[in-house]
Amino acid sequence: MATETEFEVESMHYNRLLLAVDDDDDESSRKAFNYACTLAKIYAIPLGIVSVLETGDLNIYQSLSPDLLSERRGEIAANLNTYVEKAEAFGAQDVQPLIGEGNPAHVILEEVAPAFKPDLIILGSHKRRGHNHIGHVAGEIAREANASVIIVR
Amino acid sequence: MATETEFEVESMHYNRLLLAVDDDDDESSRKAFNYACTLAKIYAIPLGIVSVLETGDLNIYQSLSPDLLSERRGEIAANLNTYVEKAEAFGAQDVQPLIGEGNPAHVILEEVAPAFKPDLIILGSHKRRGHNHIGHVAGEIAREANASVIIVR
């Protein structure tokens, strides 16, 4: 790129946003939600909000009784509804809740993103124990997604 | 975050952009430049454009004669000027060229970002050999930066 001077700058913005949320309540999650809502409102573009019921760890999965599993599904659905309502109240016009089950990065990369087709995936950094290092899920999505990825700190 | 319902969405946008460029001319680099210029123009915010003369590999470094090194520095400066001119012609009002030397990720994380203080770092994905995997430099910056990072694809 740097060796070529014959190009023109073109305006660019994103048209379809996917925000991943989870139960970790850290500052980056809140900022990621704010940023997703801001873009969705300003550009009047669709925003999908995905939450994944983590069942990647078989021991944890097996330890969830059907009742507990059902309860967790209900919690996730209720939390997603809260996000959707707040995003809509803020001014985002097309907000879709998306629920997955399994390994979060895998579900988002292999199921949710191919179906929803975002051009920007928005993630909190979920920094670990005081470090700035991003969490495993964010790192895997940043590395392997087909879409652009923003890691919000 | 998901368990808490008492919060309000707040508008959020970035105030200080750092775009990293290099000699790889791929589509993601062009898009990253377009995106950086678009944000800088729309929000009328400063845009730093950094290019690092890679000297991390000692064998390569040592093989660069003083003349060659001087020539490479001149090329990088000229290329950065091209970027700056195009960004300004597009409508970005405060564009700063930033040159580093050394290991690109290290220079950006340890020298350029702490001095320029961006709140968003914009990177091309530089996908490798047909894969979507991001390049090493982008991955390291995405993992370890203090600022938000967007990987443009």
Automatic annotation (TrEMBL), chains A, B:
Residues of the UspA domain: 14-153
Superkingdom of the source species: Bacteria
Signal peptide: none
CDD domains: USP-like
Protein name in the entry: Universal stress protein
Species this protein is from: Lacticaseibacillus baoqingensis
Taxonomic lineage from the root: Bacteria, Bacillati, Bacillota, Bacilli, Lactobacillales
